[in-house]
Predict the 3D structure of the following.
Amino acid sequence: MAPTEEVLQFPALPTFSLQHLLAIAKEAGEAILKVYHAGPAEVTLKEDNSPLTLADKASNEVIVSGLRQLTPAIPIISEEEKDTPYDIRKNYTAYWCVDPLDGTKEFIKRNGEFTVNIALMQQNQPVFGVIYVPVTGIMYYGGKDTGSYNVDANGEKVYLKVDNKPSDWIAVGSRSHASEEEAALLSQYPISQTVSVGSSLKFCLIAEGKAQIYYRHGPTMEWDTAAGQAIAEGAGAVMTMPDGQPFPYNKPSLLNGGFLVKVN
C-alpha cells in the first residue's frame, strides 16, 4: 500500500484503503456518465415501477466487483443486490449498503443531480459513507469517527461542518417528492428559505453548512439514506425518526419510514 494512502480501521473489521474505496465510487460514476452522455436513457421499470437504467446496472457491477476485492469478507446489500433473505442478513455485524445510482429520476431528467452512494454499516448503523457526484466530480465522504470531507474535481479537500445557527434556517427538500406532512413538521423550526435538490445531495448540503434541516415523510430505501447519514453525522448533524428515536437499518423490509436530519 502506497505511503500516501489513508487506511480506515473500524472495530473488528479488516483495514482497507480510503483511496481505493473512493476510486471505486469514481469508477462507478464514470460508468454512469458513459450512459448519460450517450443520449436519452434507456429506461425499464423495476417491480415497484421505479425506473432502472443501463447506468444503474453498469455502476452496480463496478461497485460490487470493487468492494468484493477491497473487503472480501464484508457482504453487500445493494439496490440491485437486495435479495438476500432476512434470515441471513439479520446476522450481519457489518455490511456495505449501496445505491449505485441515487436519483435515477434526476438522471432521466438530465439535470445532473444524481449520485453514487456507498456506506459501511456496523451493528446496523452507518459508520462511514461515500457520495460521489459524477457530473461535477465532487466526492463527499466521512462518518462520526473520522469527520466528513469533500474533495472537488481539482483535488481540493475541505473539512465539512454544519452551520447550527439559531435562526434563518434553510430547509432542503426533494426535487421529485414532497408532502403536506413535511410542511407541517418544518413549520416548527426557524426556517426562512427552502431549496430543492435531488438524490442524496440533500444530506451533503447539511454537511456543508448550506442547509440546516431535511425532513422526509414519504418512503425511501435504506441505500438511499445510509451514506448520507454517515456524512451528515460526521459533520455534526443528527438523523433520527420523526419522533426522535434512532433510525433503524437492516430491517425485515428494507423500506424506510420517515426521517429527520438537522443540525444539533
Observations:
- The first strand starts at residue 7 and ends at 8.
- Residues 18-36 form the longest helix (19 residues).
- The two ends are 38 Å apart (CA to CA).
- The mean pLDDT is 92.
